[in-house]
Amino acid sequence: xxxxxxxxxxxxxxxxxxxxxxxxxxxxxxxxxxxxxxxxxxxxxxxxxxxxxxxxxxxxxxxxxxxxxxxxxxxxxxxxxxxxxxxxxxxxxxxxxxxxxxxxxxxxxxxxxxxxxxxxxxxxxxxxxxxxxxxxxxxxxxxxxxxxxxxxxxxxxxxxxxxxxxxxxxxxxxxxxxxxxxxxxxxxxxxxxxxxxxxxxxxxxxxxxxxxxxxxxxxxxxxxxxxxxxxxxxxxxxxxxxxxxxxxxxxxxxxxxxxxxxxxxxxxxxxxxxxxxxxxxxxxxxxxxxxxxxxxxxxxxxxxxxxxxxxxxxxxxxxxxxxxxxxxxxxxxxxxxxxxxxxxxxxxxxxxxxxxxxxxxxxxxxxxxxxxxxxxxxxxxxxxxxxxxxxxxxxxxxxxxxxxxxxxxxxxxxxxxxxxxxxxxxxxxxxxxxxxxxxxxxxxxxxx
Length: 448
Prior knowledge:
- By secondary structure, the chain is an alpha+beta fold.
- It contains 9 helices and 17 strands.
- The longest helix is centred in the last third of the chain and has 62 residues, at 386-447.
């Protein structure tokens, strides 16, 4: 039952306001807890924001420790009709060829024509044979009652034949049954036995011819059921779109610029993580940073800078290939200098960043990427990371504060009930005294 009073009818006091003010005085401890809860939640959020940046840095550093990150290649073609792509692991190579043929898809069309696709077509069973007609691939059983659409559906249902059929309109009010191989190339070619169908396209492989233009030279052909050739050059794929009698040269070359871009992205991740740390630990006068001056966090930025700037093994400083630290506590990266190092001494450039040797090898060298990874992971690891544990600690503290705030809610609710009853009892007592006073005044008045 909720009890509430506002202005005392007998006393004339604003008892509702008095109760509210009394409760506010008693709730000061709860208000302090709410302020502390807000600060705790802000701190936990700050830890997690810094942690996210370091986790991203860990991923970026680990990617540079993979061998494939250091073998980027770029591919080019001398003809617009030949498109070429190369995987990062593709090796430098070159191939010159002419495009003698492009791949085509076999198809046949019915010799008969129908005025509707929904009336019986009168087609008998279809004998599907190889392209040269010597071998049967299978039979599509028809009894003549099927419409063109139904006949097409029965052909499509026999997926082992590798065919696609549909009713097509060849002229206004005239329909035919078109059968096409599901894939291009010579092997997928077919014919339909009998005279009810005629071949309107043969299946053909794409064909490249390499060499053979001079006396004493030997030419050879490369074929593909599609217009795409894979594995002719390791890690390289090229697609032809039309015959080319003029020789086409496909070239795969090392692409140091792509490797430089990966390393540059890694440096960007370092600077982003350091900037986030600085933002949340800013210790300047008037700063309201959530982690202001917290050494456990600020020290991570220093460790990252040391990981980048210190010499790697017996090699020279990473500055030799473009890495520098600034007075502002960030990392600069000279792309041109690093690219030049990749061209002149690729092993040194890779060793400074990615290290060398297998784990456990006493002669192994730890590169700056692994050092940065270790610093970032020590802070951000989902199980053992220092920032992860600090954020979890703040979460536990927040839960405890919430429980204490909830207990205060119950305590204040009970106190409000008690105060309301006390003031109600006071008004009742005052009312009784007033009534007695009025009765006595009346009695005295009658005596006089």
